[in-house]
Input
Amino acid sequence: MSSLKIFKYTDDDPEDDDGDEDDEVLTPEDDEEEDVGCVVTVWEKADFTGWSAEFGVGDFGFTEFQAGGAVNDDVEAITVVGTDCTAEAWENQLDGEWGWHAEFKEGEYGGDDFTA
Output
């Protein structure tokens, strides 16, 4: 894993996260104006141990991902905290067309749960 995108849906129906016009996605600018309550932590080990790096709402490409304390291709677990928050992870480039991509809703994902 080398890229991460974190966002929060503010639709009245959180199950309706289909990306249509009734879904508003909060951006990093929104996070600066108000605490949107999304925190994503990536972990070195599948049992949520080892090094960790914490991120809020935003786009974290390869450079930003590492600047935030994460280690490229060395993530085995992820936690997403915050109602209606979502983390999208990429093996390679953010929004890239090659490599794996996975989406994680609020919860803890390690081991077999942390798969693309």
User: Anything to note?
Assistant: DSSP finds two helices and nine strands in the chain. The CA atoms of residues 9 and 25 lie 5 Å apart. The radius of gyration is 14 Å.
